[in-house]
Write a structure and sequence with these properties.
The chain has about 270 residues and is an all-alpha fold. Strands 1-2 form a two-stranded antiparallel sheet. Helix 9 crosses helix 10. The longest helix has about 35 residues. The protein is globular and about 60 Å long.
Amino acid sequence: MDMNNTSEHNKNKCLNCGTEFSGKFCPECGQSADTKRLSFRRAITETIPDIYNLDNKFVLTCIDLFRKPGDVLRGYIEGRRMRYYRPVPMLFVLATIYVLISHLTQTAAIAEVPIEQEDNKIAVILFAIINIINNKAWLAVMSVILFVVPNYIAFKHSEYGSRMNLAEHFFVMIYKECQGMIISLFMLIAGLFVDTSIIWINLSLIFGLLLVDYKCLLRISWIKAILLSFYSWILFALFVAITAFVIGFIDSYIGIFDFIIKILPN
Protein backbone atom coordinates (compact mmCIF):
# COMPACT_ATOMS: atom_id res chain seq x y z
CA MET A 1 0.00 0.00 0.00
CA ASP A 2 2.79 2.39 0.87
CA MET A 3 4.58 1.65 -2.40
CA ASN A 4 1.42 2.35 -4.39
CA ASN A 5 0.91 5.62 -2.58
CA THR A 6 4.50 6.60 -3.28
CA SER A 7 4.08 5.74 -6.97
CA GLU A 8 0.95 7.86 -7.22
CA HIS A 9 2.64 10.70 -5.38
CA ASN A 10 5.61 10.68 -7.79
CA LYS A 11 3.49 10.86 -10.93
CA ASN A 12 4.13 13.83 -13.22
CA LYS A 13 1.88 15.54 -15.74
CA CYS A 14 3.62 16.46 -18.99
CA LEU A 15 3.32 20.19 -19.68
CA ASN A 16 3.69 19.54 -23.41
CA CYS A 17 0.99 16.91 -24.10
CA GLY A 18 -0.80 16.44 -20.75
CA THR A 19 0.13 12.76 -20.28
CA GLU A 20 0.47 11.52 -16.69
CA PHE A 21 3.58 9.40 -16.15
CA SER A 22 6.27 8.28 -13.73
CA GLY A 23 9.94 8.78 -14.50
CA LYS A 24 12.17 11.45 -15.97
CA PHE A 25 10.69 11.71 -19.49
CA CYS A 26 7.17 11.65 -20.94
CA PRO A 27 6.58 8.33 -22.79
CA GLU A 28 4.37 10.08 -25.38
CA CYS A 29 6.37 13.12 -26.51
CA GLY A 30 9.72 12.75 -24.73
CA GLN A 31 9.66 16.06 -22.86
CA SER A 32 11.57 16.10 -19.57
CA ALA A 33 9.63 15.87 -16.33
CA ASP A 34 11.98 18.59 -15.07
CA THR A 35 10.48 21.21 -17.39
CA LYS A 36 9.90 24.24 -15.21
CA ARG A 37 9.13 27.93 -15.48
CA LEU A 38 11.48 29.92 -17.67
CA SER A 39 14.49 31.64 -16.14
CA PHE A 40 17.57 33.09 -17.84
CA ARG A 41 19.90 30.43 -16.45
CA ARG A 42 17.66 27.47 -17.31
CA ALA A 43 16.79 28.68 -20.80
CA ILE A 44 20.41 29.40 -21.76
CA THR A 45 21.75 26.05 -20.51
CA GLU A 46 18.95 24.21 -22.32
CA THR A 47 19.22 26.01 -25.66
CA ILE A 48 22.96 26.38 -26.33
CA PRO A 49 23.43 22.68 -27.32
CA ASP A 50 20.56 22.99 -29.86
CA ILE A 51 21.95 25.87 -31.95
CA TYR A 52 22.95 23.67 -34.89
CA ASN A 53 20.47 20.86 -34.26
CA LEU A 54 18.05 21.79 -37.06
CA ASP A 55 15.02 19.59 -37.62
CA ASN A 56 11.45 19.85 -38.88
CA LYS A 57 10.50 21.77 -35.73
CA PHE A 58 12.46 24.73 -37.10
CA VAL A 59 10.25 25.03 -40.18
CA LEU A 60 7.05 24.29 -38.25
CA THR A 61 7.89 26.95 -35.66
CA CYS A 62 8.59 29.50 -38.42
CA ILE A 63 5.16 28.80 -39.90
CA ASP A 64 3.29 28.78 -36.57
CA LEU A 65 4.87 32.08 -35.50
CA PHE A 66 2.73 33.69 -38.21
CA ARG A 67 -0.21 31.27 -38.32
CA LYS A 68 -0.85 31.16 -34.55
CA PRO A 69 1.73 33.28 -32.68
CA GLY A 70 -0.27 33.30 -29.45
CA ASP A 71 -0.20 29.50 -29.24
CA VAL A 72 3.58 29.39 -29.78
CA LEU A 73 4.33 32.10 -27.22
CA ARG A 74 1.92 30.82 -24.56
CA GLY A 75 2.94 27.22 -25.21
CA TYR A 76 6.62 27.92 -24.71
CA ILE A 77 6.01 29.97 -21.56
CA GLU A 78 3.67 27.38 -20.06
CA GLY A 79 6.00 24.43 -20.69
CA ARG A 80 4.79 22.97 -24.02
CA ARG A 81 8.28 23.15 -25.51
CA MET A 82 8.85 19.87 -27.34
CA ARG A 83 6.77 20.99 -30.31
CA TYR A 84 8.67 24.25 -30.87
CA TYR A 85 12.23 25.11 -31.89
CA ARG A 86 13.91 26.96 -29.04
CA PRO A 87 13.97 30.77 -29.49
CA VAL A 88 17.67 31.52 -28.82
CA PRO A 89 19.16 29.08 -31.37
CA MET A 90 16.35 29.94 -33.80
CA LEU A 91 17.26 33.64 -33.77
CA PHE A 92 20.94 32.75 -34.10
CA VAL A 93 20.29 30.52 -37.14
CA LEU A 94 18.01 33.07 -38.83
CA ALA A 95 20.49 35.90 -38.24
CA THR A 96 23.29 33.76 -39.68
CA ILE A 97 21.20 32.97 -42.77
CA TYR A 98 20.38 36.66 -43.17
CA VAL A 99 24.03 37.75 -42.95
CA LEU A 100 25.11 35.08 -45.46
CA ILE A 101 22.39 35.97 -47.98
CA SER A 102 22.99 39.72 -47.61
CA HIS A 103 26.66 39.21 -48.48
CA LEU A 104 25.95 36.78 -51.30
CA THR A 105 23.46 39.18 -52.87
CA GLN A 106 25.70 42.15 -52.02
CA THR A 107 22.79 44.02 -50.46
CA ALA A 108 24.54 44.87 -47.18
CA ALA A 109 24.75 48.65 -47.24
CA ILE A 110 26.73 50.91 -44.94
CA ALA A 111 25.74 54.51 -44.29
CA GLU A 112 28.93 56.59 -44.46
CA VAL A 113 29.49 59.76 -42.48
CA PRO A 114 29.82 62.83 -44.76
CA ILE A 115 33.37 64.19 -44.89
CA GLU A 116 32.31 67.52 -43.40
CA GLN A 117 30.79 65.70 -40.40
CA GLU A 118 33.68 63.35 -39.62
CA ASP A 119 34.73 65.46 -36.61
CA ASN A 120 31.17 65.68 -35.28
CA LYS A 121 30.86 63.11 -32.48
CA ILE A 122 27.05 63.09 -32.51
CA ALA A 123 26.93 62.62 -36.29
CA VAL A 124 29.28 59.64 -36.09
CA ILE A 125 27.18 57.98 -33.38
CA LEU A 126 23.93 58.65 -35.30
CA PHE A 127 25.31 57.06 -38.45
CA ALA A 128 26.43 54.06 -36.40
CA ILE A 129 22.86 53.73 -35.09
CA ILE A 130 21.49 54.00 -38.65
CA ASN A 131 23.78 51.16 -39.73
CA ILE A 132 22.51 49.03 -36.85
CA ILE A 133 18.88 49.73 -37.85
CA ASN A 134 19.60 48.86 -41.49
CA ASN A 135 21.37 45.67 -40.42
CA LYS A 136 18.52 43.34 -39.46
CA ALA A 137 20.77 40.96 -37.51
CA TRP A 138 22.07 43.75 -35.26
CA LEU A 139 18.61 45.30 -35.05
CA ALA A 140 17.15 42.03 -33.78
CA VAL A 141 19.72 41.78 -30.97
CA MET A 142 19.37 45.44 -29.99
CA SER A 143 15.55 45.23 -29.98
CA VAL A 144 15.57 42.30 -27.55
CA ILE A 145 17.96 44.09 -25.19
CA LEU A 146 16.32 47.53 -25.30
CA PHE A 147 12.63 46.59 -25.40
CA VAL A 148 12.42 43.80 -22.83
CA VAL A 149 12.18 46.03 -19.74
CA PRO A 150 9.69 48.53 -21.28
CA ASN A 151 7.54 45.59 -22.41
CA TYR A 152 7.76 43.98 -18.99
CA ILE A 153 6.54 47.19 -17.35
CA ALA A 154 3.87 48.09 -19.94
CA PHE A 155 2.25 44.70 -20.49
CA LYS A 156 1.97 43.95 -16.79
CA HIS A 157 -1.24 46.00 -17.10
CA SER A 158 -3.04 42.89 -18.33
CA GLU A 159 -4.17 39.73 -16.57
CA TYR A 160 -1.78 37.30 -18.28
CA GLY A 161 1.08 39.80 -18.53
CA SER A 162 0.98 40.44 -14.80
CA ARG A 163 1.87 36.77 -14.23
CA MET A 164 4.88 36.83 -16.58
CA ASN A 165 8.40 37.33 -15.23
CA LEU A 166 11.18 39.26 -16.97
CA ALA A 167 12.74 36.11 -18.45
CA GLU A 168 9.44 35.14 -20.07
CA HIS A 169 9.11 38.58 -21.66
CA PHE A 170 12.71 38.22 -22.84
CA PHE A 171 12.00 34.99 -24.72
CA VAL A 172 8.75 36.38 -26.15
CA MET A 173 10.88 39.22 -27.57
CA ILE A 174 13.29 36.70 -29.08
CA TYR A 175 10.45 34.89 -30.85
CA LYS A 176 9.20 38.28 -32.07
CA GLU A 177 12.62 39.01 -33.50
CA CYS A 178 12.60 35.59 -35.18
CA GLN A 179 9.43 36.73 -36.95
CA GLY A 180 11.20 39.93 -37.93
CA MET A 181 14.19 38.03 -39.29
CA ILE A 182 11.93 35.80 -41.41
CA ILE A 183 10.19 38.86 -42.87
CA SER A 184 13.57 40.51 -43.39
CA LEU A 185 14.77 37.52 -45.38
CA PHE A 186 11.85 38.00 -47.78
CA MET A 187 12.52 41.76 -47.85
CA LEU A 188 16.16 41.01 -48.61
CA ILE A 189 15.15 39.16 -51.75
CA ALA A 190 12.65 41.90 -52.64
CA GLY A 191 15.47 44.42 -52.10
CA LEU A 192 17.11 43.16 -55.27
CA PHE A 193 14.27 44.84 -57.17
CA VAL A 194 13.01 47.69 -54.92
CA ASP A 195 14.40 49.78 -52.05
CA THR A 196 13.46 48.11 -48.76
CA SER A 197 16.11 49.74 -46.52
CA ILE A 198 13.98 52.75 -45.53
CA ILE A 199 14.13 53.29 -41.76
CA TRP A 200 10.39 53.87 -41.27
CA ILE A 201 9.71 50.44 -42.77
CA ASN A 202 11.94 48.82 -40.14
CA LEU A 203 10.34 50.81 -37.30
CA SER A 204 6.82 49.97 -38.54
CA LEU A 205 7.82 46.31 -38.69
CA ILE A 206 9.03 46.38 -35.06
CA PHE A 207 5.85 48.05 -33.80
CA GLY A 208 3.53 45.84 -35.87
CA LEU A 209 5.07 42.59 -34.65
CA LEU A 210 5.07 43.85 -31.05
CA LEU A 211 1.38 44.73 -31.33
CA VAL A 212 0.25 41.45 -32.94
CA ASP A 213 2.36 39.17 -30.75
CA TYR A 214 1.33 40.68 -27.43
CA LYS A 215 -2.30 40.94 -28.55
CA CYS A 216 -2.34 37.21 -29.31
CA LEU A 217 -0.25 36.28 -26.27
CA LEU A 218 -2.23 38.27 -23.72
CA ARG A 219 -5.60 37.75 -25.48
CA ILE A 220 -6.60 41.37 -25.06
CA SER A 221 -8.56 43.71 -27.34
CA TRP A 222 -6.90 45.51 -30.23
CA ILE A 223 -7.50 48.87 -28.53
CA LYS A 224 -5.78 47.77 -25.32
CA ALA A 225 -2.96 46.15 -27.32
CA ILE A 226 -2.38 49.42 -29.23
CA LEU A 227 -2.44 51.52 -26.04
CA LEU A 228 -0.04 49.20 -24.18
CA SER A 229 2.25 49.03 -27.22
CA PHE A 230 2.44 52.83 -27.37
CA TYR A 231 3.06 52.87 -23.61
CA SER A 232 5.93 50.44 -24.16
CA TRP A 233 7.42 52.69 -26.84
CA ILE A 234 7.14 55.74 -24.56
CA LEU A 235 9.00 53.85 -21.85
CA PHE A 236 11.57 52.80 -24.45
CA ALA A 237 12.06 56.45 -25.52
CA LEU A 238 12.50 57.51 -21.89
CA PHE A 239 14.97 54.67 -21.35
CA VAL A 240 17.00 55.77 -24.40
CA ALA A 241 16.87 59.45 -23.34
CA ILE A 242 18.06 58.65 -19.82
CA THR A 243 20.81 56.41 -21.21
CA ALA A 244 21.93 59.17 -23.60
CA PHE A 245 22.00 61.68 -20.72
CA VAL A 246 24.07 59.33 -18.57
CA ILE A 247 26.49 58.61 -21.41
CA GLY A 248 26.81 62.34 -22.11
CA PHE A 249 27.49 63.02 -18.45
CA ILE A 250 30.14 60.28 -18.33
CA ASP A 251 31.64 61.54 -21.60
CA SER A 252 32.33 64.91 -20.01
CA TYR A 253 34.73 63.13 -17.66
CA ILE A 254 36.26 60.19 -19.56
CA GLY A 255 35.63 60.98 -23.25
CA ILE A 256 33.59 57.85 -24.04
CA PHE A 257 32.50 59.22 -27.45
CA ASP A 258 36.13 59.53 -28.50
CA PHE A 259 36.66 55.89 -27.56
CA ILE A 260 33.58 54.76 -29.53
CA ILE A 261 34.67 56.73 -32.59
CA LYS A 262 38.07 55.05 -32.46
CA ILE A 263 36.62 51.51 -32.43
CA LEU A 264 33.98 52.15 -35.12
CA PRO A 265 34.93 50.88 -38.61
CA ASN A 266 36.00 53.55 -41.05
